[in-house]
Please model this.
Amino acid sequence: MITVLSGGTGTPKLLQGLKEIIDPAELTIIVNTLENDYFAGVYVSADIDTVLYTMADLINEELWYGIKDDTFITHERLEEIGCSELLRIGDKDRATKIQKTLLMEKYDLAKACEIQAKNMGLTSKIIPMSNEHSDIKIVTDIGELEFHDFLIKHRSEPKVLDVKFSSVAPASGIIDAINNSDAVIIGPSNPITSISPILSLEGVREALKNAYVVAVSPIIGSGAVSGPASKFMEALNVDVSAIGVASLYQDFLDALVIDTKDDDKKVEVNQIINKVIVTNTIMNNLDAKKNLAKIIIENIP
Ligand code: GDP
Model:
């Protein structure tokens, strides 16, 4: 059994590789819920939906958001009638979101996701990190912004001074999944807004200390492959490098996978983390995803 901690872009790429080389029924995926909220009347859990669509081979791989080849009739009509929405939600994707919203009238988020995963024919366990609503604020030079306002309205442009989020209770099953796994994989996801919310859940860091944990650095050289991770790391005074990533996870991490381009940092990372694996971590095709997944699995003791 393998547990994966995931956000909504980097780790899903790795999941595409993992599900090709191990039985998906062996995977438990704990997904960030920090950015979840209601938009235009539907509950949007972007990272969870990305993981569901990834595992069901439905994901739009250009955006790592929504369903491939979707249409936007409802989105466009909403604009026409003066009800424009911040997120560009496709029609099929909206159906998933409507279903989740309806399920959540009866069940908690974890149960709603379990039902949706089953409907999509998935055998992996996909667990939202929490059933509670998190309140996240990006503190910037133009004021405190909601996460999606920062990301979409302001295109991640303002200078980030701090990232604040409220603490929430872990969804049930998370600690057990970690305790019962042969290894925990922290995928290359944003360390500040995707992974640290999961790590901040009560009991998670302690459980990870007793597990074999391997992470993949989402930082190559001195920048993120995509998204605002470097801005958030800088704001929190974390070195934007594989060394900075190592320092964030050092209290529980057994192995860190860094990119071939960071070979010169291996010695320094090794002073923080016992085992350092150097390989290609750019996952721009299925072979690269499978190779990285294979190297991670082969290195599990
Ligand atoms: P979000 O929820 O959309 O913010 O996505 P994640 O947190 O899951 O992933 C964002 C992180 O993935 C960024 O920091 C990127 O640097 C990292 N990332 C994306 N693609 C790759 C890749 O191919 N290789 C590596 N090493 N990191 C990647």
About this structure: Residues 7-11, 13, 47, 188-190, 194, 216-218, 220, 224-227, 229, 281-283 surround guanosine-5'-diphosphate (CB under 6 Å). The mean pLDDT is 97.
